[in-house]
Predict the structure of Polycomb protein eed-B.
Amino acid sequence: METHVGQFVCRKAKAGALAKLRNMRLQNGDKNVDEIPMELEVMEYPIVDDTLKHESQTTRAKTCNLVPRLRVTPLKHKNLKIQNEPNVVNPFSNRANGQQLTETKFIYSSHVTEDHSFPIFDIKFHQNLADKNIFATVGRNRVTIYECTNKGSNKNMVPLLAYEDPEPNETFYSCDWSENSAGRPVLAAGGKMGIIRIFEPPKEKCVREFGAHGCPLNHVQFHPKNPNLLLSASKDYSLRLWNIETGYLIVIFGGDEGHRAEVLGADIDRTGSRIVSCGMDHSLKVWSLTDAKIQDAIQLSYRYKRNSNKPFPTVLQNFPVFSTRDVHSNYVDCAKWFGELVFSKSCDNDVICWKAGNVSQSWAEIESKICEESSIIKRLDVSDCDVWFIRFSFDPMMKTLALGNEVGKIFIFDVSVADPLSLMQGTVLSHPSCDSTIRQTAFSRDGSTLICVCDDATIWRWDINEKRNDKKEE
């Protein structure tokens, strides 16, 4: 039987092999479950608080600084079969509600299926690794790390590590990559239990956890300039900014003028100065990170003594610098910065590019006065995308937008046009075997690989067609 100690069980796949991801949701004492063929030696260290043994949300939050020490040996079981089907993609068979479609530059490479059979809600590539394409997925109570391999014409996805929460009711909804002060990769994940997990894959363990929210977490994202700052968005109507190195809660965004319903998504702009958030209240809000109180609190979070008699002075930010409910008339489940513009998606079969204030106003002008006006720049029409919690992504160069839908198709839009008012070209990627809801998409560091994750626990890989004769580039 598999042994659970502390918070997580870690598995490591044998190098060069695609380890089959068996069902790890084992209950202690369940005699009907076959023994998992792996060797796992666990060293249990003294537990200061006995309540760690009870995995309720309350007690887990109180013991969030206790992490297990695991020693893991390689898996020794059969390889998982990779599905490489004939490339029968027909990107021209479906048009996006009148959007002009052009020849696709992506072709199908492979797909894999995780054995838990539950939806995979998020995928993120590690964008700071120059020589490897590493990505993480979250679904059910599992976090899995993969590597994209390229051996000739075989472009596969090899699982490297898998973490499972021993709490069977946990479901992870979001993840993101960063680096710690030593330069090692770290991965954050959060979900239904409201707990943020911080993993160090090189150490093969969960190194920190926060009782972040009293409700489920819908989104986590690291600050683009400060790798220790982590933003979380929750069903409790708030966003929170954390210092993962010290464990302090720096800012709570919410309250008087905050969201009035579940916060579904957020994005920090590339300068690290503003946050855009969206939620079930149909609203989009912009929060400033340059406020003097917030900047002082960020600096204090590195110096504050943990043995102080007073708790860390968390900043309560009740007022966004901009708020609107005029862009969408339904749940807004994804919003991302595009320079000073914002792309946001609702459950109305469209993605809207818009700007706070009028087109000519700068952010300095908008923040200096109360402004609720918004200017819609462009509307991108899609189809079969009227359920919530389907999110889009940009490639790292901010030239391409990818969004999945309910029937397994991916809409690709070229957003690199010089004039945002001009038509943005669109294509549709489809595969006969991909017919489940696509929850999230992600691009590799160089934009050459596109991955999407689905409700049927499948992960699909698409790569740039190197043989394509792109006449536009000639």
